[in-house]
Amino acid sequence: MQNLQATFEPYVLRFRFEAGTSRGILREKKNYFIKIWDKTKPQIQGIGEINVLKGLSLDDRTDLEEKIAEILQKYQSQALQNTDLEPFPAIRFALETAEKDLQNGGQRIIFPSNFTEGKMFIPINGLIWMGNKEWMLSQIREKIEKGFTCLKMKIGALDFETELNILRAIRKEFSSPQEMILRVDANGAFSAKTALEKLKRLSELHIHSIEQPIAPNQITEMAQLCEKSPIPIALDEELIGKNSQKKYLLETIRPQFIILKPALVGGFKECETWIEQAQELGIGWWVTSALESNIGLNAIAQWTATLNFSGHQGLGTGQIYENNLPSQLHLEGEKLWFR
Q: Which residues cross the membrane (predicted)?
């Protein structure tokens, strides 16, 4: 460890389309790659990705590059403490990935398993991005043609009636929830006062679950929604910055599901403790990527494969960038393979 070197560099990812989110339209996104190596074997490098979402990640700050440099300097001198990384979940995620990659020979095999041997796949949901009605319907048709049996639609950008009509169109073609699983993600777009009424209307369409119906940090309101909602609720943004409050948060809100995003929550170990707390309370979970490049997505997919997961995972963001990095991840319909 005393011979360890570390460096980082920015990388601007360019979207293939205008990616509509609740925080606006994304056309490009700047992430950072951390590289670590032993001075005696510089040809073997571990790589991790610092994935920062504007307006959402705790790491989203003006002095981020300065902080990355400080943390890597401490890392090289073996002075890095766990507390140094607590305010920087994306940096922790990147370092965990890079370390495991280096330990396994720098071949992007982060978590060896049947998945990395090509013996198993991970089923994923088809993500429908926000946009006008015609574009959203075209995405839905494309996903259905490719064989997806679980769709996740971002809602909150269009008029609610328009969004209901889009979901109705899917349900008209696939009346059975077993035939087509529908998930929706509001990204906190509903107000606490009107959320329950909207959830009741959505329930008529046999929705599997809704992610983050109201904005985070409204614990009392969210707990009431989880108790009364006819649709199972999944916490997403609610988990960010709450690693020291896992038990309190889950016991108080009692959601039906939680969504695990390693770059936002603080790496794989933190996600695993969230899973343990959730399972003790009978709360379900699944894993979702968060606009990583193939470096981060590869690590998240490999980690997911080592878990006792069930159902469709949210790992379908590998094809959204025109300048993504090469990867052994391959999508065949809704099946994510490593080959």
A: none
> What contacts 175, CB < 8 A, 6 or more positions away?
none
154 is catalytic: yes
pLDDT of residue 209 exceeding 90, the answer is: yes
**Distance between CA 128 and CA 171 in Å, rounded?**
15
**In whole angstroms, how far apart are CA 75 and each of 81, 174, 320?**
9, 53, 33
Both tokens assigned to 210: 């809704």
When the pLDDT of each residue in the chain is averaged and rounded to a whole number, the result is 94
The amino acid present at 28, given as its one-letter code, is: E
Rounded average pLDDT over 295-306: 98
Torsion of CA 12, 212, 59, 14, to 10 degrees: 0
List Cα–Cα distances, 10 to 31, 50, 269, in angstroms: 6, 9, 25
Residues 6+ apart with CB under 8 A from 304: 122, 287, 313, 315
Q: For 52-66, 92-106, 161-175, 253-267, which range has the lowest pLDDT when averaged over its residues?
A: 161-175
pLDDT at 17: 86
Structural domains in the chain, CATH included, are: 4-103 (3.30.390.10), 122-338 (3.20.20.120)
Check residue 230 and report its DSSP letter. Answer: S
**Catalytic residue of the set 29, 152, 154, 198:** 154
Give the model confidence (pLDDT) of 266-275 as tens digits: 999 999 999 9
Instruction: Please give the DSSP secondary-structure letter assigned to residue 321.
Output: B
pLDDT digits (tens, 9 = 90+) for 34-46: 999 999 999 999 9
Give the model's confidence band at 23: pLDDT under 50 very low, under 70 low, under 90 confident, else very high. low
- Torsion angle in degrees (nearest 10) through CA of 106, 265, 262, 221: 180
For residue 127, give the amino acid letter.
L
Q: Which residues contact 8 (CB under 8 A, 6 or more apart)?
A: 32, 33, 34, 35, 50, 68, 69, 72
Contact, 202 vs 229, CB < 8 A?
Answer: no
